[in-house]
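Hello, quick one for you while I still have it in my head. Could you read through the record and tell me how the tokens relate to the sequence? No rush at all, and the record is pasted right below.
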Amino acid sequence: MHVAVLLGGCSLEHDVSLASAEQVLANLDRRRWQVTPVWLDRDGGWWPRRAPLGAGEAFVTDGPGIDRASAHGPLRPGAALDWLLDHAGVDVVFPVLHGAFGEDGTVQGLFELYGVPFVGSGCAASAVAMDKLRTRQVLAATGVPLAQAYLPEASIAAIDPDAEFVLMRDAVGTPAFVKGDLSGSTFGVHRVTCAQDLRDFRDRYAGRFRRWFAERGAVGEEITVPVLGNSGGALQPLPPVGIYPVHDSWFTTDAKYRPGACEEIVPPRGLSPVAIREVQDLARRCHEALVCDGMSRTDMIVTDTGPVVLEVNTIPGLTRQSLLPRAAAAAGLPFPALMDRLLDLALERHRARAVGAVRATPSTCTSANLSPGNESSSVPERTAEA
């Protein structure tokens, strides 16, 4: 089968996506999958490679992304997907995208409109999980334990740091962790102990995020628990990974991605077998509450009184240093097998939803049919989806 791997994108996590995709492309079994990389540049252009990677051919970038000489583009998203489906013959899409315009339901909605199978959660689950405030609302409604939070009325741009800091400190104490609403990979997260810290947060992120909130700094062992499976079906919580920054007091972006800056241990140092089962069950509950598919990774702090959930990621990092592959390996699932599992779950979900589904065919849904003056042809015929 032919898989298109999407990488890059417009978000702050563009470079993280490239690093994840490099590993995905290196570990897809070329005996089973024909592979076409698709680079999404920072300006929104899509660059599908003109030819799939050959057997044994490594993915080569020109630094910021795919080698443009070997790619077809830049294309708008719909035109690129048309080309991938109708010209390249792609069967399934693997979006290795992190952050806005990749992990937040935008491309997932596009794939759902086209009726094409894709790895990961659907549009609604992706959008809710990406929005940290919406995630809190859903998880709180299902009784998931969360860190105590301060929910301000002012947007990031409208913060009065001195006044807001007093309100935040009185609500959750310090240190607190302030977070932009649509962020990931620790971008948009700031540790705050004084009004100047809050001012720095505002100045850095006012143009990138609208809403924000603050959480009490939970004291305990930081862990993450991945889950594999489609919501409503059999779910497999993977072994939890303990996170121990070497130089930083918390899991910063530098600690996350710089080699040697963090110890990541399976199982975590301080968790008993009973505690491991507890956090795995909690991760499963989060996966189901958000209606995740394929994969999720739930980050937690295990305190003296039990675990509290920090967030849920629907496209976790897949770099050499990332936590999902580490947990999968500990469960006996090496990287190539993990890739197969995720693609199989995407195809399984697609087959389950295909009954009764319809999809516009290229021959009936054209720009000519939808142009002004052709109102009588503006509604294309539809055929049952294969």
